[in-house]
Amino acid sequence: MAIGYPIPKFYFKVSRPEQEFSSADQIGFTEVSGLDYQIDLIEYRHGNDINFSKIKLPGLRKFSNVTLKKGVIQGFKDSNAEFFTWIGDGKKDGTVRKRSGYRRNIVITLNDEEGHAVVAWTLTNAWPVKVAFNDMKADANEVAVESLELAIEDLAVEYK
């Protein structure tokens, strides 16, 4: 590993710290986007302040939805059945539609060339708000990709 060079962004893992998905503790995604947040700006001025300007205070943090994309792989549903039950149709307790225990913590880790974690993003209380499937075209030369959009309540970044 070369010290002092930026880390390539293609070697990452999406995993579950609690390993609630019984068959695998990590699921292969091809793209992760939306790892950001912003802090609201509050402007305030006292009525008797001699300065003719407002002071600026930090407000609430707002988190973007995180989007995970992966290729559709034959047999993937069987090996990760609990993951698909979580994002699925709501037939079992614990899914989004039943609104019982559906929030999950997810860790996204960026690795160096040797596979060591460099940066880890922890998504707290994530839950699926949108599942999108690929368009199908008879004349296309592309793989089928599905995306999962997650709402999150907190985003923690840890540099290793």
UniProtKB/TrEMBL annotation:
Origin superkingdom:
Bacteria
Q: What single Pfam family name could you report for this chain, choosing any that match? A: Phage_T4_gp19
Matches recorded under InterPro entries: CHP02241, Phage_T4_Gp19
GO MF terms held by the record: structural molecule activity
PANTHER family per UniProt: CONSERVED HYPOTHETICAL PHAGE TAIL PROTEIN
NCBIfam families per record: conserved hypothetical phage tail region protein (TIGR02241)
Q: From the Swiss-Prot or TrEMBL record, give the protein name.
A: Phage tail protein
Q: Which species expresses this protein natively?
A: Chryseolinea soli
